[in-house]
Amino acid sequence: MAVFWAALAPQMGRAQEAGNPAAETMSVGEADARAPNVADDSLPPEEAAEGQTTDPAVGADAYQPLSPEWIKGQPESGALGFQKQYSDIGEYGLWMHNVVLLPIITVIVLLVLALLLWVIARYNRRANNDPSRTSHNTLIEVIWTVLPVVILFIIAVPSITLLVRQYDSPPEDALTVKVTGYQWYWGYSYPDNGGFEVISNMLEDGEALDRGLPPKLAVDNRMVVPAGEPIRIQTTGADVIHSFAVPSLWFKLDAVPGRLNERELTIREPGIYYGQCSELCGVRHGFMPIAIEALPRPQFEAWVRAQGGTIGEEAEEADMAEPADLQEPESSVEGAPGAGAPPTELDSPAADAEV
Ligand SMILES: [Cu+2]
């Protein structure tokens, strides 16, 4: 395992820093805002905080997790088609589906169905006992060759445009969030903000319902990002291939061990957007949901400070400090909650908060 991590480290760019100093200063009511980082035990908070910020608790009071009425992207029971889109690229993709693909497919299907019915009714043996011996018809052959080519060209224009736009590089000053898929939870690290990592586990159904959140989608710590500005999402896997997918943001990117994938994401408005791991990754694949919380800039910065992170210039100074040790994935620790056994009451965030 150590060899694997050593090999992976250079490709993962900045070292992930462990520990969550702000957690110490926060009350039980703010359980949502703290990250029960797996490395908490191995590293004293003071050490983790070193060089990151002068006062990790600055702004800690200003951040409140968004309440359930802010949920915007989530599946609805009985719904058909795509979820409502909250990004420009999503709007374009949805337009391509609704205005380009669906009408063309519908017309083709109806035409073929009508032709079939006509042939069945008109040219069966009873109705047409003496079939024509015609074997070629140049006009018809030209039509059924050229017409599909024209249709494909018409589809190709918006299709290639969509493909290219989806892989536009984010601008240089975009905020970077590195998403790591673990068996079976997500880690979100913020290299531009001091490099802290937030660990995100699914909430128990009862706990989610108590908080008014959708079960199997709600998590203890959301991935918090600023709304209305480009974000550079990088994905990697710590153990096996996962896939980071949020339907209402038109976003899906594989998280592959030893690779760093990158895509831009701009969320138009503040809200909560749910997604799920979309690459079969093991027994708890279905229980590693994604919850993104998009906030206006000032609230996002308050959240960063509540996590012990840094903003702008401070972050550059923090760069000079020694990076903390790489975090061992939870699943490499024998008997760890993420390593196979379902979570118990003991490792639920609520239990942590009471201690
Ligand atoms: Cu997964």
TrEMBL record:
Cellular component terms per the entry's GO annotation: plasma membrane
Pfam families: COX2, COX2_TM
Domain of life: Bacteria
Gene that this sequence comes from: coxB
Domain Cytochrome oxidase subunit II copper A binding: 172-306
Region (Disordered): 36-59, 312-355
CDD domains: CcO_II_C
InterPro entries: CcO_II, CcO_II-like_C, CcO_II_C, Copper_CuA, Cupredoxin, Cyt_c_oxidase_su2, Cyt_c_oxidase_su2_TM_dom, Cyt_c_oxidase_su2_TM_sf
Textual note on the cofactor: Binds a copper A center.
Role played: Subunits I and II form the functional core of the enzyme complex. Electrons originating in cytochrome c are transferred via heme a and Cu(A) to the binuclear center formed by heme a3 and Cu(B).
One Gene Ontology term from the biological process aspect of the record: ATP synthesis coupled electron transport
Membership in a protein family: Belongs to the cytochrome c oxidase subunit 2 family.
PANTHER family per UniProt: CYTOCHROME C OXIDASE SUBUNIT 2 (PTHR22888:SF9), CYTOCHROME C OXIDASE, SUBUNIT II (PTHR22888)
EC number: 7.1.1.9
Top class in the EC scheme: translocase
TM region(s), chain numbering: 100-121, 142-164
Name of protein: Cytochrome c oxidase subunit 2
Entry membrane topology: Multi-pass membrane protein
Single GO MF annotation: cytochrome-c oxidase activity
Subcellular location, record wording: Cell membrane; Membrane
